[in-house]
Amino acid sequence: MKDKKRLSGLGDYKRVKGILVAPLNAALGDRLKLSSWAKERMPEYLWLGLILIKYGRDGGFERARRILLEISETVKPLRHPRLSMIFSLPADEEKEVYKIICRHIDKETLSPLTILYKSAQYPNFNESFFVPHLTVEERIDALSEAIDLYVPHQSNEATDLRFLSLSLLLFSGKMHFVRGTEMTINAIQEYAYTNHASEKMKFYRPLIRSTEGGMTMEEYDKQFSLNFWRNIGMLISCSPTKIEYQENQNNYNEFVGDCRKTLEYVLYSNKDKSITDDRFAVIIGSVNYALKIFSEIDAKALGSSILGRHGIRSIIEVYIMLKYLLKKEDEKPEVWREYKLYGISKYQLILLKARDYEFSDKTSHFQPLVTDLLVNEFMAEELINLDLRYFDNQTIREKSEVAGEKQLYDLFYDYDTNFSHGLWGAIRESAMIRCDNASHHFHAIPDIYANQTLPDVKLDSLKILKMVFRLFSDLYETPSWFIDKHELRK
What we know:
By secondary structure, the chain is mainly alpha-helical. It is about 60% helix and about 5% strand.
């Protein structure tokens, strides 16, 4: 995909003080000035776009060419055909621009804009272009059609408009070219007279777009464009759209039941270990914890939900932690007890804070009495140190490397962590939906009635849970029927 789209790979990013700087940012730094065609520049030239729509490409180009040529000869202070600049002209020069326009097109063409630029603030514009018989709905529809056409910055229509935005510079002789840009010169000379179906246009269109983008040396009136989008957005309703995902309808009751039978078999086969062996307790407890999460995802139909992503993240962490502990047990035989003590110390820290706060809400899901019992079940709390670091002083990412599961961490765990932490990417994917309206910049709106689901996690959860049980079956004698039935042999 990288070669096809010519996108940078992770290795192309430059690490600077904990930040991976994108290649363009690293190369250009403060010299990189971003200007959005859709958000900042297109609203300025929409009046020319309305001419192209009304009279077609050939007729529109010809009329726009005559208008801009006459403006360049008559209203010399106007450097660009930007509507904000026209509005800022002295009244006599502003009226002259409108007279020129009206000599070449009928006033209905630009009348839709009067719904945004009203007579109280723009009297000269309304005097020239307001048409009483055009309804509010007709003017809104005309603007919506134009915005839909011209927002996609690489569309043929947008490229036509971007070409027209250069015309005033060309006619006034203010656009200059250096040697070696003959192809660009040819593109500018021939563009308006070349059909989009022509092979030449495959080369001309990118040249026009890059030229227009490169000519934005002067700052655009961002407030003008902001007002444009705010005003048009308030006139048009949102058009919410969601992505449809197929829910996994497989029944996993039999698999969950088999897993429970297997855990029961191993437990009774190793009853002595369950009483005295920290290693056994951690392993069988962790495996059962992962199984309970999967069972809840399945039974509660959480596969396509946000909570499903919380669940699969926990299953992954259980798996990585088990593999990490197994890697470490030879050099640190006490690692299993240390792991239990670390987890209990986290409970004790919360318990101590609850006592400081004098927390006693009996309706809360956090019950200090139960936490107290669990902490002191392990050992007297006065003997438990509170470890504020990561367990074994390594992050889960570092543990995944030791466990040989870096890819699982990088792709799934890291992705699902976004949902656990409520980061914007996860919020945007799960709790917001796209407004399919160019007049609203295709903005995201809250999915208040929970119409948007997510890709189901159950299949991935099943794969990882099978990895957990495969690991488990390597450590303790497991029924062969279970291994064969669920394809757990390596």
